[in-house]
Design brief:
- The chain is of the alpha/beta class and 765 residues long.
- The chain contains 29 helices and 10 strands.
Length: 765
């Protein structure tokens, strides 16, 4: 709001002439309209949760709609009051008593409520966010064109005059103009003359008719939302069948996990006395210690679990070991095969499976792995070897039977949750890592799905790789699958580290040897028992400092000796070192990103079809609104109409592209962050490919628009000018599409991007 006020102050401070006053009133209406634009994304994003709750009979749709539409009214009133208190007096509107000011506030409040309801309705009825942005942008265009300001009411063609009488924008501007121009400040007929010149009725009755119309539209939009939310079908329920035991045995016959297509350098990770500090939140001084002198190791062929309660520091420890922490202070020693860890090289032999599975929705399972292999395997591996290795990994993670399915936006539209998790593991495995980090690989999965994922993890360790996982409250079967265990308690202190032994006997024997520990009862999950007795779960029953007990135990002494030995270079242990930051050259990064984007765009017809359909619609709207104005240039007013046609073409079609591309970028943004962190490619080839893939679609869009609007407006029939207009439109579309990508990359959420885009649109206007 402050940015908007500064703009108005700059352009309209203490305005005296009525033309500028009309510009102020139009800007105020536009502000209240654009302020409601983010509610479209908010409504759309909350719809999925609502549909689940509706199908579970939490509440009737009418109650949800009523509360959703009423809850914003106090905020709309606050916006209107604050905005009016600053703008009204700053631009010099009438101070003829308190009546005009409070009427001004009431009109803006009504407009804010109405347009918020309008955009919320669009979010409720739209099947995709791309379509919602397209519909919202088109409606905004129609509202502005039919407002009676950009095209005066007498100049609106007969076949479009109906839009003037159903436009909330027109009712708002008309009410604001009459409220201002009928005060004593504009006495002597000047106010009435100004209203008549702009084609606005002069009776004050139209003020209250406008306010009633805005609230009538508000009720209509709420009613449409209610019916849409009542009869919209909920998310599809699908059953997924994972690989059967017979299929698994068949896989084992075909593939020896220890004889994959590519070899790798075995890696031993050793770390000693790791401390990690972050600044205290707020204004307090000092640092907060999250890890406290953690020591340990992980050898090839072992499966190490990092455990502890929420907040104990297990994920923090893994991020420190993997070099994923970008803030805070780390102390201690980390070595790879006895050599100091150099992050640029270590990233080339490391895989990191994040807890959230982020994949390109319009790529197949096989293509996802091929993309990762093409960019993360070294240049010494030829293309055929990379593709053969991908096929090996598909069998290793047991996804070969669904390798040609699209990943999809969600499990309801693509592969299941546990298949996505195995795909995340596969994306890292095709990079042929020597060491693999996994952040809670079984999180969010049921017992059967979790067992399938853990079987794949065991297969990876069996191939001779070093595997480190964070895990939280696993089942007994999953817990016993780990060969080594590092347990942390709150404060980041070590409670246990080392091999956990057969059936977890080493861990159980150690904890039960400490006086006061409740023994493990038969049938109890040892993982849950361990977390509880060390007060890492929910019900610690004894007051024992297990970290202190472990530090003076023989297990700690044995682990310390082992760590000391592994911190020294071993005979035959190779130093991990690479000269280049990325495995693939720049040209390969660019070509692979371009191929991926080309396929994604082609397989996303809702995005480009929406753009093309709306381009034709906008061309027809502009062509019919400015029908034949290019052939009727007789005075300055006709020139103004032509300039208006060119201006609207340049601005609104580009802004429409800017809005529709943002959801597409948001879908891919988390994938980009994951791939960038893994060293898959650089920022420049990715962004360049994203720009180039847009060009063919934008050319088609500019051809469609120019071929329709140019001849309907009846610009000069000259081939050179026709293609020049087409070129300018294509360049403008590309520029504003890139602005949309920029906005989507620098904002935290879609509704914030919508708000920033709306303000940018006003600035362009």
């Amino acid at each position: 709001m402050s940015f908007w006020v500064l703009l108005l102050e700059h352009f309209f401070y203490d305005t005296k002439d009525y033309v500028s006053i009309f510009g102020v009133l139009f800007s105020c209406s536009l502000f209240m309209t654009l302020a409601g634009f983010p509610h479209m994304a908010i409504a759309f994003n909350s719809k999925k949760v609502f549909l689940k709750q509706r199908d579970a009979h939490f509440f009737p749709p009418s109650l949800y709609t009523l509360t959703a539409y009423l809850v914003y009214l106090p905020y709309a009133l606050m916006d209107a009051v604050l905005f009016s208190c600053i703008v009204y007096f700053m631009v010099g509107l009438s101070t003829d008593g308190a009546g005009p000011f409070f009427t001004f506030v009431l009109i803006l409040f009504s407009m804010a409520s109405c347009t918020t309801a309008l955009f919320r309705m669009i979010g409720d009825i739209s099947p995709t966010m791309v379509l919602a942005n397209a519909a919202g942008g088109a409606l905004l265009l129609i509202l502005i064109m039919s407002s009676g300001f950009t095209i005066l009411r007498p100049s609106i063609p007969d076949w479009w005059i109906w839009s003037y009488y159903i436009s909330p924008f027109a009712y708002t501007i008309r009410s604001l103009a009459i409220n201002e121009m009928t005060t004593s400040r504009w006495a002597g007929g000047e106010g009435q003359q100004a209203l008549e010149e702009f084609g606005i009725f002069t009776s004050r009755l139209w003020i209250w008719m406008g306010i009633l119309a805005l609230w009538g539209f508000y009720a209509l939009y709420a009613l449409i939302s209610h019916f849409s939310l009542t009869y919209t079908k909920g998310p599809k329920k699908r059953a997924f069948l994972s690989a059967s035991a017979a299929a698994v045995s068949d896989i084992k016959e075909k593939l020896d996990y220890r004889k994959l297509a590519l070899t790798f350098v075995p890696v031993t990770l050793a770390f000693k006395d790791l401390n990690y500090f972050v600044p205290r939140p707020g204004k307090s001084q000092g640092h907060l210690q999250l890890l406290d002198k953690i020591s340990g190791y992980a050898k090839p062929g072992t499966l190490t679990a990092l455990m502890g309660s929420t907040g104990a520091g297990k994920t923090t420890l893994m991020d420190v070991l993997a070099g994923r922490k970008t803030s805070g202070t780390t102390e201690g020693e980390i070595r790879i095969n006895g050599h100091p860890k150099e992050q640029k090289s270590f990233r080339r032999v490391m895989g990191y499976v994040e807890q959230i599975d982020s994949h390109s929705a319009f790529a197949t399972v096989r293509e996802t792995l091929q993309f990762s292999a093409a960019l993360r395997l070294g240049q010494d591996v030829d293309r055929s070897q990379k593709m053969n290795f991908v096929e090996d990994i598909l069998y290793l993670i047991e996804l070969h039977k669904i390798s040609d399915l699209l990943v999809g936006l969600s499990p309801a539209e693509g592969i299941s949750l546990e298949q996505r998790k195995r795909l995340s593991i596969g994306v890292e495995l095709v990079a042929n890592p020597s060491i693999l980090f996994m952040d809670e690989p079984t999180s969010g999965l049921d017992a059967y799905a979790a067992s399938i994922v853990m079987k794949a993890v065991q297969n990876i360790a069996a191939s001779g790789r070093t595997v480190i996982c964070t895990i939280h409250q696993p089942s007994s079967e999953i817990f016993l699958a780990f060969t080594h265990l590092l347990v942390l308690q709150k404060g980041g202190k070590t409670v246990f580290f080392g091999p956990q032994g057969h059936e977890c006997e080493t861990l159980i024997r150690f904890l039960e040897s400490i006086p006061g520990t409740v023994p493990l009862k038969e049938g109890i999950n040892p993982a849950n028992w361990m977390l509880e007795v060390v007060n890492g779960g929910t019900s610690g029953t004894v007051n024992v400092d297990y970290a202190h007990e472990f530090s003076k135990s023989q297990l700690s002494a044995d682990a310390t000796n082992e760590v000391k030995e592994l911190l020294q270079p071993q005979s035959g242990g190779r130093m991990v070192e690479f000269d280049e930051k990325f495995s693939a050259p720049w040209s390969t990064q660019f070509s692979e990103c371009l191929k991926k984007n080309v396929k994604s765009y082609w397989r996303n017809p809702s995005f480009n079809t929406t753009r093309y359909v709306m381009t034709v619609v906008l061309a027809l709207i502009y062509g019919s609104m400015y029908w034949d104005v290019g052939n009727t240039i007789r005075n300055a007013g006709n020139v103004q109409d032509v300039l208006g046609a060119l201006f609207n073409t340049a601005v609104f079609l580009g802004v429409f592209n800017m809005d529709t591309i943002q959801p597409v970028v948001f879908m891919e943004r988390s994938v980009f962050y994951r791939e960038r962190a893994s060293g898959t490619y650089g920022v420049l080839p990715y962004t360049l490919a994203l720009q180039i893939v847009e060009i063919p679609y934008l050319i088609v869009q500019s051809v469609l628009y120019t071929s329709i609007a140019y001849f309907m407006i009846n610009f000069e029939h000259d081939v050179g000018k026709f293609f020049f207009v087409m070129l300018v439109i294509a360049l403008n579309l590309h520029m504003l599409s890139m602005v949309g990508i920029l906005i989507a990359t620098i904002t935290a959420a879609e509704h914030i991007a919508s708000l920033v885009g709306a303000f940018f649109s006003y600035f362009v206007d």
